[in-house]
């Protein structure tokens, strides 16, 4: 099963993608996590991506598409995957469609986690991320057991640089300009499903499971 998560930054794509990955036994692939891991390891790709990410801009398609195609070609992706944060532009979606078509394959579901802009700034200013294992929390809605510490790996949690309110507003604008057109793209392909992302995490997951089953 090949699934794409769509939605504004902070809509809950990553939170749901991790739950889907666990339930269906498929890898969760987040281009944002791949970039952050590269930044942490100070690779050339990481240094290049950081310039864009810190300003709330998209990393150029050429870079992003390459890392994504390399990742989905790995063995653990044979039975499918859930993509979180890719595609984010029409050209990215077209590359993915073409790469899958070459193998007589296609994405099965594009799930739009729908959250209005008013809720997004709150979601993102409260987000705390573990840069070691990729887990995310929310200081009010989904708190870790011990403040500031990741439940899964014990590392310190951080407010991502790009989650500061001034950057979030940029990211929302970029989302509306460049990513929202994907809703029409996947509607035309007949695979778009929308869930109400303002509900609590478990309720959103139940909506998704009923779509996938
Ligand atoms: P995205 O991957 O779409 O950028 P995340 O999954 O990281 O978004 O979620 C953004 C923030 O909102 C995180 O702090 C997360 O813990 C929190 N969150 C996710 N889903 C919900 C929900 N259904 N209700 C409230 N907060 C949520
Ligand atoms: P995310 O973790 O999905 O919120 O992504 C964080 C940042 O990484 C984004 O704001 C972009 O700068 C960059 N990024 C992640 N995925 C992509 C993508 N598919 N295309 C371009 N930039 C991306």
Salient structural properties:
five-stranded parallel β-sheet; 14% strand; globular; 213 residues; 7 strands; binds adenosine monophosphate; 9 helices; binds adenosine-5'-diphosphate; alpha/beta
What does this structure look like?
The strands form two sheets. A five-stranded parallel sheet has the order 2-3-1-4-7, with helices on both faces. 35% of the residues are buried. The chain is built from nine helices and seven strands, in the order βαβαααβαβαββααβα. The protein has 213 residues and is of the alpha/beta class. Helix 2 packs across helix 3 (44-53). Helices cover 47% and strands 14% of the residues. The chain is globular and about 45 Å long. The protein binds adenosine-5'-diphosphate and adenosine monophosphate. Adenosine-5'-diphosphate is lined by residues 7, 9-15, 84, 123, 126-127, 136-138, 141-142, 200-201, 204.
Describe the secondary structure blueprint for this structure:
Layout lengths: L1 E5 L6 H12 L3 E3 H10 L3 H10 L7 H12 L8 E4 L5 H12 L7 E6 L2 H9 L1 E3 L6 E3 L26 H15 L1 H8 L3 E5 L4 H12 L1
Parallel strand pairs: 1-3, 1-4, 2-3, 4-7
Antiparallel strand pairs: 5-6
The site of adenosine-5'-diphosphate has 20 residues, from helix 1, strand 6 and helix 9.
């Amino acid at each position: 099963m090949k699934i794409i998560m769509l939605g504004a930054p902070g809509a809950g794509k990553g939170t749901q993608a991790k739950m889907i990955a666990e339930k269906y036994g498929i890898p969760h692939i987040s281009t944002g996590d791949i970039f952050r891991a590269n930044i942490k390891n100070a690779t050339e790709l990481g240094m290049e991506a950081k310039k864009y990410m810190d300003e709330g801009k998209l990393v150029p398609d050429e870079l992003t598409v390459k890392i994504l195609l390399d990742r989905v070609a790995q063995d653990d992706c044979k039975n499918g995957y859930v993509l979180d944060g890719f595609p984010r532009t029409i050209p990215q979606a077209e590359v993915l469609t073409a790469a899958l078509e070459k193998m007589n394959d296609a994405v099965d579901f594009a799930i739009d986690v729908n959250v209005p802009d008013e809720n997004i700034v709150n979601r993102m200013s409260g987000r705390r991320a573990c840069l070691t294992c990729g887990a995310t929390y929310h200081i009010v809605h989904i708190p870790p057991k011990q403040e500031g510490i990741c439940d899964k790996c014990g590392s310190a949690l951080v407010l991502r640089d790009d989650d500061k309110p001034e950057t979030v507003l940029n990211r929302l604008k970029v989302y509306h300009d460049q990513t929202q057109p994907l809703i029409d793209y996947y509607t035309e392909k007949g695979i778009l499903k929308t869930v109400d992302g303002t509900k609590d995490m478990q309720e959103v997951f139940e909506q998704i499971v009923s779509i996938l089953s």
